[in-house]
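Thread: Newbie trying to understand structure tokens

Hi all, I'm a second-year student working on a class project, and my supervisor (Dr. K.) asked me to get a predicted structure for one chain before our next meeting. I've only ever worked with sequences, so writing a 3D structure as a token string is new to me. If someone could post the tokens and maybe explain what I'm looking at, I'd be very grateful. Here's the chain:
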Amino acid sequence: MAKSDIAYIILFSLILGYILAFPLSMADPWSKWAVYAGFAFILLAANLIAKKLSAYVLDCYVDLEPWNWQRYWLYESAYWRRPVPMWLIWPIALVWVTLGAVKWLAITTFEVVPLASKVRRRFSELTEWDIAVIAATGIAANLVLAVLAAFLGYPEFAKIAMLFIFFNMLPLPAYDGGKILFGSKLFFSFIFIITIINTILIYLQNTLTTWISFGLLILILIVIFFSLRER
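---
Reply by user tm_fold:
Sure, no problem. This is what the structure looks like when written as tokens:
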């Protein structure tokens, strides 16, 4: 993992920690922020590491980037001179306006760069399906953490992990969900439906629902494994 990736993860963790901890307690404003920032760091790191591993299998490299707003209209020249840092403006403005009712947790995106070994091979160009599989591995890594946290008795972390997954699965171009959707609508529908079901199961918090979550998680991991193997 590059130094820039680590720096980004730390920065994004602090932002997400603030959003999750909002409104901050006047008595002890830092401890709650630190705990939630730690949760965010684990989720972001797991998401990125999983993407980098799957990208390595596909002879690619993943760069973590902030979610910026660059294009404001449909024609080719419709770009801001400087990208608007939506990763900072949107989630903080939203949590302020809603007084903490809406905590937007998707503030990152990623770019996939093919390695020289992939470029040299014929008929091995980087496809939208490749990017979709890489994005899905990040979601799967966070699902693993959520289900394990629920199983081990850490429901708060499990709920935050599922909230993080839900926002990142939104079908917007910069997010994991958008990249999965562009790769395959069926694949997106499969993962999104299982994400919603797992969210409900984890919020119900009992032994049966946790085991069902494990089963759904294994199903996703099998699908991703064979998707990577085929490539």
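A couple of things are worth pointing out once you decode it. The beta strands are 60-66, 69-71, 79-84, 108-114. The chain has one domain: 3-230. Feel free to ask follow-ups in this thread.
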